[in-house]
Amino acid sequence: MRGKLIVIEGTDGSGKATQSGKMAARLAAEGFTVRKVDYPNYQSQSSALVKMYLNGEFGERPEDVNAYAASAFYAVDRIASYKKEWEEFYLNGGIVIADRYTTSNMIHQAAKIKDKAEKERYLEWLGDFEFTKCGLPVPDKVFFLAMPPAVSRELMRGRENKAGNVKDIHEQDSDYLSYCFANACDIAATFGWHRVDCTDSGQIKTIEQIHEEIYQELHRMIGRA
Ligand SMILES: Cc1cn([C@H]2C[C@H](O)[C@@H](COP(=O)(O)OP(=O)(O)O)O2)c(=O)[nH]c1=O
Q1: Which residue of 20, 27, 128, 223 has the lowest C-beta tally within 10 Å?
Q2: Domain residues of the chain, as ranges?
Q3: The pTM is what?
């Protein structure tokens, strides 16, 4: 019996790593068979092209590599990780909590395409490529951590990113973060993601508040262990 794939998604600096780690630990403590994965999978050689892209080796701006090509880099990394690390676990009923997934291409790569019809074509291509053709599982639930760019810029200031402390080409581009956020809000509504507002009247919510909101919604779906 197939398990469940839960994705914690959001723009850079929205708290995905904290929330996905906390959720996986809580579900494990409750007796669920759970595993956390995160993308890009920097520990694996399969992320080589993603690293080259984020280091600016193909161009210093995100748009220097088009949405289709960059998406393929990330998709290849995901396929390698799925096959090696969690396919069997998931097909045998395990719950997988993913910090980013195909949904990150939907946010960060689709943001490069301004024309609405072209963006729709890209999104259709992406779903067909990653899920239908490459066989990656479709998420059962996507939580979108809606952290306004002004707040995430503050949270990211001085913080190390997952790949080391040098800012990658996405993080260096402040306008790109804003496009990604606006795009993510539209996509979350269109694709039925569960939006979790991380601020309330301009004030950032606590890690516990955000965690509890995700936890309650998740329990409605997976029940009790
Ligand atoms: C997983 C994934 C990430 N991305 C982007 C989002 C991020 O801007 C960038 C690096 O991801 P990540 O390492 O999670 O960001 P951080 O630097 O905050 O630790 O890659 C995609 O465009 N597509 C994808 O499929």
Answers
A1: 223
A2: 4-222
A3: 0.96
